[in-house]
Amino acid sequence: MKLMSKNVILAIVFLAISLVTASQSQQDGAISDKEMKLVDFADLEYPKLARTALVQGIVVVRAKLDDKGYVVESTALSGSDVLIPDCLANARKWRFQPNAKKAVVIVYNFRVTDAVSKSGCSHFMLEAPNFATITTCSPQIR
User: Fold this and answer.
1) What is the pLDDT of residues 60-76, one digit of tens each?
2) Which of 58, 59, 60, 102 has the fewest CB atoms within 10 Å, counting from its CB?
3) pTM
4) CB–CB of 120/51 below 8 Å?
């Protein structure tokens, strides 16, 4: 059941990315995964406010690159207002091999697990070149 849920979520994410990329491609040209080669990235902690409020969801960020592949500007294409600021700040810490469009898309997937923790937990997992999953445990029940 959980595997099916994960597959459904991934299918929805990829559909959303396709739609966003298609609309963006009319303006800036589509960005293929083949054009995105990750050089360096920074982990992202689950934002405390989002964790406390149990906010989950997908944030899609379009980033502009300089000639060396550093992210110089990031813009949210979709996502929760609670999650977006941390994603934009995190995206500016990433580096890619420069590409012809000098742009990339980064997808952040935020999930709250059923686990319970007294001290809180956050886990960052990257599926190169641009899909980051950030999970956290449920806040402790009092």
Assistant:
1) 999 999 999 999 999 99
2) 102
3) 0.77
4) yes
